[in-house]
From TrEMBL:
Any Pfam family the entry gives: TAL_FSA
PROSITE patterns given in the database record: TRANSALDOLASE_1
Catalytic residues, chain numbering: 83
Record-linked NCBIfam families: fsa_talC_mipB
HAMAP family to which the protein is assigned, alphabetical: Transaldolase_3b
EC category: transferase
Record protein name field: Probable transaldolase
Annotated localization: Cytoplasm
Keywords carried by this UniProt record: Cytoplasm, Pentose shunt, Schiff base, Transferase
The keyword Cytoplasm is annotated on this UniProt entry: yes
Family annotation (InterPro entries): Aldolase_TIM, TAL/FSA, Transaldolase_3B, Transaldolase_3B/F6P_aldolase, Transaldolase_AS, TSA/FSA_arc/bac
Enzymatic reactions: D-sedoheptulose 7-phosphate + D-glyceraldehyde 3-phosphate = D-erythrose 4-phosphate + beta-D-fructose 6-phosphate
Enzyme Commission number: 2.2.1.2
Amino acid sequence: MKFFLDTADVTAIKKINALGLVDGVTTNPTIIAKEGRVFEEVIKEICSIVDGPVSAEVTSLEADGMVAEAKEIVQWAENIVIKIPMTEEGLKATNELSKLGIKTNVTLIFSVAQGLLAAKAGATFISPFLGRLDDTGTSGIELVAKLREVLDTYGFSTEIIAASVRISEHVEKASLVGAHIATVPPSLYQTLWSHPLTDKGIAQFMADWESFQGGNK
Ligand code: E4P
């Protein structure tokens, strides 16, 4: 399973990338706006840090505008993936970009039908939003499981990015139901390697070691 970072915070990306734990990065207009930096500048910087795919989202709502933006954005770096909203116009743009060999991440997926259509249109990645779906009382994890089943049944190469990940359980369950990737905010990622029993175990080992050393003096 691959792990992407869901952020445009380059300090956080550098820190976690140094652990070898970053297979890619996803951004969206909200995430970019939070950094208060020029879109092109921040995407170029992220692409220079991370080897894997970096999703940059278009803001046009018409297919022609999306394709024009995509053609410009892909020139910024070799590892850019164009993030496209899941709409009729988005599907049209995804289809055109796929024919041009430009990788896409179709975002804001909330149903199996949406995921299936995006895959048929040629999406490289589809992003079901777990947290936002859970908020409506529908299981985001169940959607990921169904999407995986459909993609496998029909032999699509499209990969599922479990997005809108808010709790460690989302990451664990996404891995169990076959998400190819989880995109995780840095604040949550840093909690994944911690466990209170690990901390308690280390404290106990250290205390036992110190008393053993003391006894050997
Ligand atoms: C990732 O591609 C999405 O943009 C992101 O995970 C959305 O997360 P949110 O629902 O927490 O905003």
